[in-house]
Sequence to fold (332 residues):
Amino acid sequence: MPRKIDGDFVTFTQFIQEEQNRHPEATGDFSWLMSGVALATRMIGSYIRRAGLIDVWGDQGTTNVQGETVKKLDIMANDALKRTLGYRGNVGIIASEEDDEPRVISEVEGEDSYIVMFDPLDGSSNIDVNVSVGTIFTVFKNPPEIEGAAKSVLQPGSKQIAAGYVLYGSSTVLVYTCGQGTHMFTLDPQYGTYLLTRENITIPQHTPSYSVNEAYSHGFPEGYRRYLDWVKLEKPRYSSRYVGSLVADFHRILIKGGVYFYPETNANPEGKLRLMYESNPLAFLAEQAGGAASTGTQRILDVMPGDVHHRTPLVIGGKRNVDEVLDMLQAG
Ligand SMILES: O=P(O)(O)OC[C@H]1O[C@](O)(COP(=O)(O)O)[C@@H](O)[C@@H]1O
Ligand SMILES: [Mg+2]
Ligand SMILES: [Mg+2]
Fold:
């Protein structure tokens, strides 16, 4: 059972406060920022749970900077995050999958100025069919010495100060790290509060399970095809799971282990997933849970981004599972 304080579950806000108390230099602004993220995800969760009762299904009728068809819920989620973060006063810059460029939202400077980047709705192709989707976020310090939002956001993932996601599934869970382990909170629908349910999660080192969209494997680099042939012959037999929502596929691996990969493909020669608000936050969570995350040739958190929508291949999961894939890639 999760840790309790005086017999009560630990709330997300209490947990952040505890972490901050371990940092005497912290000013408390950070927990105010995180409460903004938590509020926005509760709003997004309520839209998702009422899908069909309110108009959230279908396309918005526009295409985003990624060239993807934008869903109504992508925009509703994006607006919810921008609104709640906009009120915080300590968020200097935001960037989103759905916005062309990062934007300065307040002139706050110095130690208490943060950058927040997010994928407001992850797994868009699953919205209309009631399959789990998510929201992914990451927080960096806003470097006062760098001019302009476009440059300020270009920091390697190793500089993240916090990251997480919310999975809108059979229950709504928030998974979070600020570099002191990876922890999970479950939304109590009765009180609308995120409560600590798993602390210091550890990804199993090895689980015979992989997750990939094999429909594209003919376009994968040879090493990945070699891995897929190898796992099918291995004893005990590996199982395969693929939801098609990155957050849902990653969450299963966080709890049960295995490996997820989205390599370079013919359609996406640099990979499909975005470094800043998909691969980096999940890599931070995975490493804090004893797992690993790679581009196939480099640790994700060491990648220097070229721009805010930088794409990257991703191999993520239990350490030994990831090593098995990387060994196949190197065994060229
Ligand atoms: O349909 P594909 O090519 O397998 O891609 C699925 C992947 O694309 C994504 O939907 C991309 O994320 P968005 O939905 O946020 O654009 C991931 O969640 C998922 O893992
Ligand atoms: Mg996504
Ligand atoms: Mg998205």
Summary: Residues 74, 97, 119, 121-122, 124 surround magnesium ion (ligand 3) (CB under 6 Å). The mean pLDDT is 93. DSSP finds eight helices and 17 strands in the chain. The chain has two domains: 4-198, 209-330.
